[in-house]
Amino acid sequence: MSKVKVQAFAMSLDGFGAGPRQSLDNPLGAGGTTLHQWFYPTRTFQHMVGGEGGTTGVDDDFARRSMEGMGAWIMGRNMFGPVRGPWPDDSWKGWWGDNPPYHVPVFVLTHHKRAPVTMQGGTTFHFVNGGIQEALERAREAARAKDVRIGGGVSTVRQYLQAGLVDELHLVVSPTLLGSGEALLAGIDLPQLGFRCTRHVGTDDALHVVLTKEGAP
Ligand SMILES: NC(=O)c1ccc[n+]([C@@H]2O[C@H](COP(=O)([O-])OP(=O)(O)OC[C@H]3O[C@@H](n4cnc5c(N)ncnc54)[C@H](OP(=O)(O)O)[C@@H]3O)[C@@H](O)[C@H]2O)c1
């Protein structure tokens, strides 16, 4: 049965998944790039950005698997881009260029209506105004038997966790302190939600932690 997964989600030692003051020039917020130092050198990321080479090993294995077997993605409007408020026009089509790395339908949570945007390579961005349940229903239908990945950002992951809708959470704890930003787990009782740690692996750049929900498919 298909699962709802949060994968390769990076968190600072002090619990932030994005830095403060996200902007066009600083999509991850101040200091946010330090969260992803484990990811940038991997072969998976290098191929994603059209490069060659890259590291293999544990970080790359997690990175590669995080992209496999996904039938649909869900993301929040802030992960999709820096535009806030009503869409002024249709010019913003994500950070990822003409051929985004998703290659499946992506459901973007937003309060502001917008027609779907079809990109090259199988990615279509659908804008969902009805909340997390509607987005998940549509993503499950689109994904058929495959998994649904909750891509981020922080607010989106928190909502799906709090609603008890996530089956598996792979966190990448990065050795960085952000001090402020978007707190990922504040006020969320993971054991009460049924999660336990089923795997942890340390590398030079991160600690990978897999949390699995009791009774998940
Ligand atoms: N650490 C990681 O691995 C990782 C992964 C992915 C992204 N990120 C980062 O996370 C940051 C973005 O996270 P974020 O917490 O600021 O925002 P987010 O979850 O990406 O998006 C939040 C926005 O989405 C819309 N939204 C969310 N829930 C909704 C709902 N139930 N109904 C309707 N609209 C809803 C709202 O936008 P409107 O009201 O404006 O429509 C809301 O302000 C970025 O810096 C991104 O780079 C980090």
TrEMBL record:
Recorded GO MF terms: 5-amino-6-(5-phosphoribosylamino)uracil reductase activity
Protein's recorded name: Dihydrofolate reductase
Record-level GO BP terms: riboflavin biosynthetic process
Residue intervals of the Bacterial bifunctional deaminase-reductase C-terminal domain: 8-203
Gene3D superfamilies per record: Dihydrofolate Reductase, subunit A
One family name in Pfam for this protein: RibD_C
PANTHER family with a match to the protein in the record: BIFUNCTIONAL DEAMINASE-REDUCTASE DOMAIN PROTEIN (PTHR38011:SF12), DIHYDROFOLATE REDUCTASE FAMILY PROTEIN (AFU_ORTHOLOGUE AFUA_8G06820) (PTHR38011)
Upper lineage: Bacteria, Pseudomonadati, Pseudomonadota, Betaproteobacteria, Burkholderiales
TM region positions: none
Superkingdom as given in the UniProt entry: Bacteria
